[in-house]
Write a structure and sequence with these properties.
Layout (H helix, E strand, L loop, with lengths): L1 H20 L1 H14 L5 H20 L6 H26 L4 H26 L8 H20 L20 H22 L2 H17 L2 H25 L2 H21 L4 H12 L5 H4 L2 H7 L4 H13 L3 H6 L20 H34 L3 H16 L7 H13 L7
Helix pairs in contact: 1-3, 3-5, 4-5, 4-16, 5-16, 5-18, 6-7, 6-8, 7-8, 7-9, 7-17, 7-18, 9-17, 16-17, 17-18
Length: 422
């Protein structure tokens, strides 16, 4: 055991590095196995569970951080809750749904466990955050979408009706989340280069985001542009650089006009037209009804939420406390496995009052530290990314409940604390 402990202690940073960098590869392999072999590989899932196991083992048996006791207690409470949840599922639904429910539970609780263990390593100064990893990861994802666009080898973003490509990946929701929360870092890096190739790179990135056809990456890109522009304008005002301010204003106008010319040719714009035609929207006034807003903006998430909310209300006390799980109305004609896809609601309904409290305690604890750190050391990319994480987790989901995305969310949050050792 001593040799095992020494090996883990020596290589833990390398293990984290490879789990982050190989994320796009894992997603590609998973996608290709589903699309071409019609089989979902369990190897990738096993590697992620093994990664979790190594992090937990390091916390309990190797770490000497003075916050180890507090973090260990939270992790233990998560593990105890997970056991209680599994027992409830077996008692109420039967062992035949054990694997599905356990897999879904592990996907959801991947985030708080990784966040806490990475935070522990960070406080011990055994984990040094490297922002270059975020650039490499995002460039890899973009490359695995851009090359398929050029070679016409990518997969469709939608199964039917709408258009767009997600490259060699499978889930447009998860990939869209990754492209969104990492974009501020790469955008800031490219702007800082002030070279011709950086402008070309931004154009390529924008073309990829529009080619996917989904709303989330475009919305995130717009929020990033807005926050960066406001920060730059404030900076110019403070320094009274009026000429640069006027030039920047002209640049924004030209950029908007160029975008308006190109937009109708993109998959994103075509999907908006398809959606409006489906809803039979003839004018903007027709759009502003609750049903149309839910369908057009939220992709019917509000309707799904109301269905799940009613199932939660009708559930037993034990299910209200520990969660109704991922299969609603099991063994009835109203069986439902559709997620709300709004992370905060999904966590609450699936894992109940007890599970939600245990889930959000570490998230809020570290989020408060992140906010305090960003107030001291203002970093526009970090601020933008944190805002996107919180917004997208609420409105589009797949941010803190999907391991491929949530491991990056945890790393981004820890990177906000750079220099904030306790």
């Amino acid at each position: 055991m001593r040799k095992v402990n020494e090996w883990i202690k020596t290589h833990i940073t390398t293990i984290i590095f490879w789990m982050l960098i190989l994320g796009p590869v894992f997603d590609c392999v998973t996608s290709l196995s589903i699309h071409l072999l019609h089989v979902q590989l369990t190897l990738i899932m096993f590697l992620k569970i093994l990664f979790l196991g190594i992090l937990i083992y390091d916390l309990f048996f190797i770490s000497k951080c003075r916050y180890k006791r507090k973090i260990s207690l939270i992790i233990l409470s998560i593990l105890v809750y997970m056991m209680m949840y599994v027992i409830l599922i077996i008692l109420t639904k039967g062992p035949e749904v054990f694997l599905y429910e356990c897999q879904s539970m592990l996907r959801t609780f991947f985030f708080p466990i990784v966040l806490l263990t990475l935070y522990n390593l960070y406080l011990e100064k055994r984990l040094k955050v490297n922002q270059n990893y975020l650039y490499i990861i995002l460039v890899t994802y973009i490359t695995c979408i851009f090359i398929p666009i050029l070679t016409h080898t990518g997969f469709d973003s939608y199964a039917y009706s709408k258009v767009g490509t997600i490259g060699w990946f499978y889930s447009s929701n998860e990939i869209g989340g990754i492209l969104s929360i990492l974009f501020p870092f790469l955008f800031y890096y490219l702007l800082a280069q002030k070279k011709w190739w950086s402008i070309l790179s931004i154009v390529i990135i924008m073309s990829v985001y529009f080619a996917i056809g989904t709303k989330v990456p475009i919305l995130s890109m717009g929020i990033t542009f807005a926050i960066f522009s406001i920060a730059y304008i404030i900076q110019l005002f403070q320094k009274k650089k009026w000429k640069q301010l006027s030039r920047f204003g002209i640049l924004i106008i030209l950029g908007v006009l160029s975008l308006l010319l190109v937009l109708p040719k993109t998959s994103f714009y075509k999907n908006i037209q398809i959606h409006l035609d489906f809803l039979k929207i003839d004018s903007m006034a027709d759009l502003f009804t609750l049903d149309h807003i839910d369908h057009f903006i939220f992709s019917e998430r509000i309707r799904f939420m109301k269905t799940t909310e009613q199932n939660y209300i009708n559930a037993s006390l034990s299910e209200k406390l520990l969660g109704i799980g991922y299969i609603e109305n099991y063994a009835t004609d109203q069986v439902n496995t559709k997620m709300v896809e709004m992370d905060y609601y999904d966590i609450f309904f699936r894992h109940g009052i007890v599970g939600s409290i245990i889930y959000f305690i570490p998230f809020l604890w570290i989020l408060i530290k992140v906010v305090k750190s960003l107030l001291k050391n203002t970093s526009i990319p970090h601020i933008t990314s944190v805002i996107l994480i919180l917004l997208l987790a609420l409105f589009s989901g797949h941010i803190i409940t999907a391991p491929s995305v949530s491991i990056l969310v945890a790393y981004v949050l820890i990177s906000c604390l750079e220099g904030e050792y306790e």
